[in-house]
Specification:
Radius of gyration: 60 Å
Low-confidence stretches: 1-21, 423-439, 668-689, 709-732, 736-743
Largest sheet: 5 strands, mixed
InterPro entries: Cadherin, Cadherin-like_dom, Cadherin-like_sf
Shape: rod-shaped
Protein name: Cadherin-related family member 4 isoform X12
Organism: Bos indicus
Subcellular location: Membrane
Distance between the termini: 118 Å
Number of strands: 52
Keywords: Calcium, Membrane, Repeat, Signal
Structural class: mainly beta
């Protein structure tokens, strides 16, 4: 399993800026081939980027060339272990990988530091010890008895080690032994006289719970040489800067002798330094940052020089390496990006966001902060006080373009030499100094709108004619809202009984149905205004209202007169040569009782013009009737059209039906030779009113009778006898009970 430090790595390449950063990752030595060490994401639109592995220090084939794939518009690079990877923290615990990224014409390089960590659960023998040839140890025959010859380093703790191979004399001068710390001890008899002999020792390592492994140690005994290995120089102290990269040269030692080899004998293991076996060059093997590893400030090294064929001929040299602090790293801030949103009603002095910065080179040192605005360039709404970003001026989103997102950079400077800023990238490096170019770490503050004001409108009065058609536009309700975007208002009418509607978008008031001036002359409507899209929360609304009055402007004639009764049947005894008032047609408009002016005209049934109208009075005229005087009764069915005659338009009318039975009047004294009957002027005409009983069946009964199985017995009804205005029905063959001539 790859043990990664919790950091977010983003390499963003844009046209104007490039970032060159160093990354550090920890990898367990138990990781095998194919394991992913690190993933990088790049933005290189519109070019096709490349990612290269330039070199590895110390040289090894454990790392594959980086892969680069495209995913959702972003390029993702990966570093993985190769098929030959065999990580061993005891052998090499740090690697430096130099990477190069190319995006169009922009080229940047970065260093990936890989720290190999010991795996406490790794319980297997590794290295040359576990190989078939085993680990080879060369010792002089003059070695002191019962002295440690070699230390076997294995992962884990608490392992038990035993030599399982035979050590029988006379070949073995005495048994070798190994303790729990892995130290191999010389026989108690020593090795004097055993020169040129080779002793192979099989060693069993037991870790507990039935886990174990085997390895071999081969001890070669070398004869004593007459030559002498020595160091010509004396002990010395070496000072190096802490910004040396792993693999940098620290010093070089030289010893007199034949075919001399070098090794570090103290401290063992040496985590920070290594020495070349042939040329004696001492190099760094790990980063020397004093902030992360304070114990690296002073290291005392003991170097041993010996002849390759006679390792017992050796000499040792002690020297001290002092690591000097360098202002290498810029301040580090958490969070690295300030992004937040605040409402426009945030009071002045409110904390927008806080962050903390530290100097990796000098923890606890004083840092300086500067706030640089980018958009808008001269913004004064934010300020930086003691490393805290806060509101400096009133925020307002109620004007076009006023609700902005503020972008800025916070520049953090340390007190080292040269001063370092949090913004920047490494442009050129030497062993002691760095030059940095300024760059921007975004500060993004979005000011969000708040619905502060309720919509308002002014009460208005609209006038409309009584005969206005549906969908007629009466006027508009003009609502206003001070929040931006202005006048984002929806309109509605409280209640739904009035025949009016308001357009929800523009506030136009329309007529839905007919109006009646006589029923209602004015209406008062409450229009509700509700705003929308003026707050970060889409469910936040404010509302207001106003009253509009709609007055029906004109009284339009929309009701026809009605006559009571609508049908009259009268019997009149007429006098020869006289005019007689038959009846008065009584009509009115029930909905408009103030309307009294009507016009009357006979439109049907007035044969021989026997009848005339004097206003609403029906008059029978016999002045033009000469002898002989009719002996029989005669019936007239008169249709009288009654229309309103006022100034209102249109003029509506109705028709009244008057059936008049004219019966000649005869004197009681008997007839004379003159066929004309004379009626004294002093005599008063007699007006007889006869009310007829009629039957009006329900429509369903008509259908039943028409569909009866015995139509001959059914009462036949003639629809043609129906009164055209009032729907009165009379049976077929009906006759007046007193005057059979009237039908």
């Amino acid at each position: 399993m790859v043990l990664l430090r919790p950091l977010a790595l983003l390499l963003a390449l844009v046209v104007s800026e490039l970032y060159c950063l160093s990354w550090f990752i920890d990898v367990s030595e138990s990781q095998g081939p194919g394991a992913t060490l690190q993933s990088f994401s790049f933005n290189c639109s519109p070019y096709i980027p490349t990612l290269e592995l330039l070199h590895v220090q110390p040289p090894t084939t454990f790392f594959n060339p980086p892969s680069l794939t495209r995913w959702q518009g972003t390029y993702v690079g990966k570093m993985t272990l190769s098929s030959s990877a065999r990580l061993d923290a005891l052998t090499v615990n740090h690697y430096e990988l130099q990477l190069r990224f190319t995006c169009g014409n922009q080229v940047t390089e970065g260093r990936l530091s890989v720290n190999v960590q010991r795996d406490p659960n790794r319980d297997q023998c590794a290295g040359r010890f576990a190989s078939p040839a085993g680990e080879i140890i060369q010792v002089r025959e003059t070695v002191t008895p019962r002295t440690p010859l070699y230390t076997l380093l294995l992962p884990g703790q608490g392992a038990q080690m035993n030599i399982t191979s035979a050590q029988d004399p006379p070949y073995f001068p005495g048994p070798f032994s190994i303790d729990g710390q892995g130290q191999l001890w010389a026989p108690s008899q020593g090795l004097k006289g055993q020169a040129q002999k080779v002793f192979q020792l099989q060693i069993l390592v037991t870790f507990g719970q039935g886990r174990s492994c085997r390895g071999m140690l081969t001890v070669k005994v070398l004869p004593v040489s007459s030559s002498q290995v020595s160091f010509p120089q004396q002990a010395q102290n070496i000072t190096i800067p802490e910004n040396l990269v792993p693999g940098s040269k620290v010093a070089q030692v030289h010893a007199r002798g034949f075919d001399v080899r070098y090794e570090i004998v103290s401290p063992v293991p040496c985590r920070l330094f290594s020495i070349a076996r042939v040329d004696g060059v001492v190099r760094t093997t790990a980063p020397l940052e004093l902030a992360q590893a304070p114990d690296a400030a002073v290291t005392r090294l003991r170097v041993k020089a010996f002849e390759r064929l006679r390792p017992w001929d050796s000499a040792e040299l002690d020297f001290q390496v002092d690591v000097q602090s360098v202002n290498r790293w810029p301040p580090r801030c958490l969070p690295a990006l300030l992004a937040t949103q605040i409402p426009e009603t945030t009071p002045v002095g409110t904390f927008v966001n806080t962050f903390t910065c530290t100097d990796p080179d000098s923890p606890g040192s004083t840092l300086d902060y500067q706030l640089l605005f980018h958009s808008p360039a001269s913004a004064s709404s934010l300020c930086l006080r003691d490393g805290v970003l806060e509101v400096n001026d009133t925020l307002d989103c109620d004007a076009p373009g006023a609700c902005l997102q503020h972008t800025a950079s916070i520049l953090v400077l340390d007190s080292g030499q040269p001063p370092m800023t949090r913004q920047g990238r490494a442009n050129q490096a030497s062993s002691l100094t760095f030059k940095w170019l300024p760059a921007e770490v975004p500060v993004l503050v979005m000011v969000t709108p708040v619905n502060e004001f309720s919509p308002t409108c002014v009460s208005r009065t609209f006038r409309v004619r009584e005969d206005a058609r549906p969908h007629t536009l009466l006027g508009s309700v003009m609502g206003t809202d001070l929040d931006y975007p202005h006048d984002s208002i929806e309109y509605s009418i409280s209640g739904g009984s009035a025949p009016f509607a308001v357009d929800s978008l523009n506030g136009e008031v329309h007529l839905l149905g007919p109006l009646d001036y006589e029923m209602q002359k004015s209406y008062r409507l409450t229009v509700l205004l509700t705003d929308h899209s003026q707050d970060q929360d889409p469910t936040c609304h404010r509302s207001g209202s106003c009253t509009i009055t709609i007055e029906v402007e004109q009284d339009v004639n929309d009701h026809a007169p009605e006559c009571e009764p609508p049908f009259q049947e009268l019997t009149v005894y007429a006098h020869l040569g006289r005019s007689l008032e038959v009846t008065t047609v009584s009509c009115r408009v029930a909905q408009e009782p103030q309307r009294l002016a009507f016009s009357y005209r006979i439109v049907g049934g007035n044969s021989q013009s026997r009848f005339s109208l004097q206003g609403a009075v029906l008059v029978h005229n016999d002045l033009m009737l000469g002898p002989p005087w009719p002996e029989q009764s005669h019936t007239y069915e008169l249709l009288i059209r009654v229309a309103d005659a006022g100034p209102s338009t249109p003029h509506l009318s109705t028709t009244a039906t008057v059936i008049v039975h004219i019966v000649p009047w005869r004197a009681s004294t008997g007839a004379t030779s003159i066929h004309r009957t004379t009626v004294p002027s002093r005599m008063t005409p007699l007006l007889v009113t006869d009310t007829e009983v009629f039957w009006q069946p329900e429509p369903w009964l008509t259908q039943v009778l028409q569909t009866s199985s015995k139509p001959t017995q059914a009462l036949l009804l003639n629809r043609e006898l129906r009164d055209p205005l009032k729907g009165l029905w009379r049976p077929r063959g009906w006759r007046h009970p007193r005057h059979p001539a009237v039908s």
